[in-house]
Design goal:
This protein is of the alpha+beta class and 202 residues long. It is built from 4 helices and 7 strands, in the order H-E-E-E-H-E-E-E-E-H-H. The chain has a domain at 27-59 and 82-110 and 118-182: Mitochondrial Matrix Protein, Chain A (Roll), CATH 3.10.280. It is elongated, with a radius of gyration of 20 Å. It comes from Dasyornis broadbenti (rufous bristle-bird). Its main location: membrane. Belongs to the MAM33 family.
């Protein structure tokens, strides 16, 4: 059984490498520096007196696909629909002269398809906003967290503009999907390779 499993994994790894779009991770425009630790990625950008970091994790970032719909329409020779990784991401804005960090928890809404009529709909939304003490690893649950569900639209728009001024806009969000998808695929191939070595190990 293990031999067949290992053989299956070998074939699967070859297939995945064939469809791999990026041999190296795509860059995000706008002078962001990328740090990757396993499944977590951090993008950092410094602008006048501020440091902006965007952190995301590719685990569980691929939305469940509506497979029932696609299978009937799929012709036999067509590729499977491409998987896209749309992770939640956290934006931290740190000003040099304060001890607080503004933290914005953003995500890609799943029901994006419904917004086609709207002009220039944002492809990501801000879910929560809070202040956290700068430099502390653990965030406190005791700090007030603003949930945007009940937020005044004008304030929400200002928050979106505030992010856009710091380079976190639709273009960035698109490139983040591209980067996250490539990273997810790279990690998936690595996982298959590790699994193969593990299975073959007697």
């Amino acid at each position: 059984g293990d031999k067949a499993f290992a053989q299956f994994l070998t074939d699967e790894i070859q297939e995945e490498k064939k469809i791999q779009k990026h041999k190296s991770l795509p860059k995000v425009s706008g002078g962001w520096e990328l740090e990757v630790h396993g499944t977590e990625a951090k993008l950092v950008r410094k602008i006048a007196g501020e440091k902006i970091t965007v952190t995301f994790n590719i685990n569980n970032s691929i939305p469940p696909s509506a497979e029932e719909d696609t299978q009937e329409q799929q012709k036999p020779d067509e590729q499977e629909p491409e998987l896209t990784s749309t992770p939640n991401f956290v934006v931290e804005v740190i000003k040099d002269d304060t001890k607080q960090t503004l933290v914005l928890d953003c995500h890609y809404p799943e029901d994006e398809i419904g917004h086609e009529g709207e002009e220039e709909s944002d492809i990501f939304t801000i879910r929560e906003v809070s202040f956290q003490p700068t430099g502390e690893a653990d965030w406190k649950d005791t700090n007030y967290t603003l949930n945007t569900d009940s937020l005044d639209w004008a304030l929400y728009d200002h928050l979106m503009d505030f992010l856009a001024d710091r380079g976190v806009d639709n273009t960035f969000a698109d490139e983040l999907i591209e980067l996250s998808t490539a990273l997810e695929h790279q990690e998936y191939i690595k996982f298959l390779e590790d699994l193969k070595s593990f299975v073959k190990c007697q």
